[in-house]
């Protein structure tokens, strides 16, 4: 059976399905076995919880650091509270099974903590919810999948790929990824590309159609999944896989070359990353800097806010790995499709248009200043960090952020803590508002980076993750192209550098246009570095300017895309 989805990460993988399903924690069928039995069941579940949590804490301590491990050991302390246990036992005395007792008491505490107007208390609510889910899972015997222990040749099938799934993932054993949700620029897609694994997203009902152990082929270049392929299809795809690998190998000649066009003009070719560990891969992939560090991933993989030390260590690590090269770090881009439960953000009718990114951060200065201080300090030695603001729509936002940055500098200077006094502050241009006032923003910013993932979404009024409207979601829309051109022109006039960190920067069809308009820096996923360098190498100015003129004379996205694809593939 052929399943069609979105081609999110190139390459071809063959293997067997491992389905990651949400755990069913429904205990309504569990019968009460008497108070002694239920109390024993509860106690052994708590013992097992403590054992597993200690093992997890040890693992995290080694991998990430002591601060993260503390969150887990804190959960053990919480559950060891004799009062909490006595309340659970009392519920059992009153006729509840162990599951119902654990559920009722944990939920009561979670609600109580969530209602307190204090950040720390609200984080405790998340912890108790986590304790509840893990205790129920132990009591019901529903085992989650250990992503570190997957068999070789696994094709992961999940509703969504989340940052926490990728943390423990043993990539060597994964041949491909299939998900039910997500578009080309969704975070699942970005994570898959960072892992350099073939991925097809947005296959409706994938988890119903595919069973554990099913034979699967993932063609991440074409967006096709073959379920239960026959021998003939397998050999067809094995040969496609070989072709793809040969193409990738042929790009190796560009690894140590500078990024210049056919006339010898230099460009910066940077990588997008989501963690300090990604910076290593980026450096090995030939990146000349980091054009976008999505710091929200640092906030998403946890149950409480990363403090200044944790943040400093992550930013400092990237700064060191990239010593002598620029590192553009984007401040917390929370909200929209990036929920962070422990922040206790309210549900919104239109999260993409809501209280998110720079808007949220400016309303939480105490939280934002922790990040700004960590960034200022992390840049003290190498002086290579630049700060970038997400989702800017007006000049006031840049001014307010700059004011907070200056306040942080003052605090650090007073405390005699070293920091980078001259750190650059720039804006992501990813809303139509910012694109329209790019000339005004250029007076306030040290640099721009165009975020085409969101710029396309907001310009076209089309949800970037919704497969039903995916047809409209393309940066080849004349509206998006004009917007990009205007932003680059405004930056050139104001004499500030302008890059692009949206996924469009790696599109071979768009590259000649970006060169013609004068883009200074291309920031792409690590896996796209060499292919992008090869594209930049091939064009002379006279050719890319002719191509651009031709493309802009066309009035439809399909016309533009068709023309550019045909030209680039010649
Ligand atoms: C963008 O919007 O283009 C971008 C790079 O940011 P993100 O994909 O994280 O929204
Ligand atoms: Mg964005």
Task: Please sum up the structure shown.
This protein has helices spanning 35-63, 66-79, 82-93, 98-114, 119-140, 163-168, 187-195, 206-209, 231-250, 276-284, 296-300, 308-321, 357-363, 365-378, 395-414, 432-436, 438-442, 452-460, 478-494, 511-517, 529-538, 541-552, 557-568, and strands at 2-4, 6-9, 12-20, 154-158, 174-179, 199-201, 215-219, 224-227, 268-273, 290-294, 327-330, 385-389, 424-429, 448-450, 498-500, 521-525.
Q: Can you offer a commentary on this structure?
A:
The protein has 570 residues and is α/β, with parallel strands linked by helices. It is 49% helix and 13% strand. It starts with a strand and ends with a helix. It folds into three domains: 2-22 and 146-234, Glucose Oxidase, domain 1 (3-Layer(bba) Sandwich); 35-140, PtsI, HPr-binding domain (Enzyme I, Chain A, domain 2); 253-568, TIM Barrel. The mean pLDDT is 92. It is globular. Strand 7 and strand 8 (224-227) form a beta hairpin. Strands 1-8-7-3-4-5-6-2 form an eight-stranded mixed beta sheet. Strands 9-10-11-12-13-14-15-16 form an eight-stranded parallel barrel, surrounded by seven helices. The structure holds phosphoenolpyruvate and magnesium ion. Residues 390, 430, 451, 453-454 line the site of magnesium ion.
Layout of helices and strands:
Layout: E1 2-4, E2 6-9, E3 12-20, H1 35-63, H2 66-79, H3 82-93, H4 98-114, H5 119-140, E4 154-158, H6 163-168, E5 174-179, H7 187-195, E6 199-201, H8 206-209, E7 215-219, E8 224-227, H9 231-250, E9 268-273, H10 276-284, E10 290-294, H11 296-300, H12 308-321, E11 327-330, H13 357-363, H14 365-378, E12 385-389, H15 395-414, E13 424-429, H16 432-436, H17 438-442, E14 448-450, H18 452-460, H19 478-494, E15 498-500, H20 511-517, E16 521-525, H21 529-538, H22 541-552, H23 557-568
Bound molecules: phosphoenolpyruvate (PEP) and magnesium ion.
Magnesium ion (MG) binds next to helix 18.
